[in-house]
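FYI - complex with adenosine-5'-diphosphate, inputs then prediction.
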Amino acid sequence: MQDQPYRLAVSNQKGGVGKSTVALNTAGALADRGNGVLLVDLDPQGYLTSGAGLDECYTEQPPSLYDALKDPSQIDVNDLVIDHPEFDVLPANIDMFNLEQELVSMMQGRKRLKTLLDGVTGYDFIVVDCPPSLGLLTDNALLACENLLIPAEAEDTSIRALDLLFKQVDTLEANFEDVTISEQAIVVSNVDYPLDGEQKSMLEWFEENFSEYIPVFEVRNRAAIKRAWNNGGSIFGSDEECDMEDELTQLAAHFESEARGEPE
Ligand SMILES: Nc1ncnc2c1ncn2[C@@H]1O[C@H](COP(=O)(O)OP(=O)(O)O)[C@@H](O)[C@H]1O
Ligand SMILES: [Mg+2]
């Protein structure tokens, strides 16, 4: 096990593109391959916390991730981590709705999560699910992780969404000299077969524009993925077979070699 976990932000400011689903199942795939994984829900809406079956944590009294991000020196983040059958979880809390605004006036308001996660050891991977916005919480995830997993739908709207995300990455890199944020993989998510014309041309667009320098994965729309979510876990923690396990396992293997610094 490495001293510093490999950290990964799952980000795309567009809502409903599969971020939380991809985050949960990527964490499940990494854990299934024997890695120690911490899954962090940075979305104030707490959907991933629900997907991990931890709804009660979302409305728990302080201290929560909200308090830890507000005052990293006062709270040991390890005390907030919850056991899950597949991995550990740092749940979101309803108090986090105030955070985006409060971070604006805080010193180092974009580096809070980095400060917190610098104190978290004992894992191979930390996977951070981002909110559907390009605000300060997403900036926190990008600066803390410096590695980006981008879920995107096979829809025309993804072209602009990715353009804006990459611009935000450039802005952060320009403002923080010590930071290099690497796009590590794209997951075209929730792809629905048979493909219509838009999905087909967008799958080609992802291949043409990205596959030369980062791998493009495809996770199809599967009721089994939804059922596993409703049962509080990933498809790897479920008894039900799902034909998307192979693709997610390859995604996990890709991050393992990135974490080892090995070219593929
Ligand atoms: N591969 C998939 N198979 C089935 N349903 C999916 C899949 N990916 C996403 N969904 C569904 O699509 C919706 C949006 O996904 P979600 O992960 O919550 O997106 P985001 O986090 O980007 O808002 C959810 O209802 C989720 O269950
Ligand atoms: Mg989400």
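Residues 157-175 form the longest helix (19 residues). The chain has a mean pLDDT of 96.
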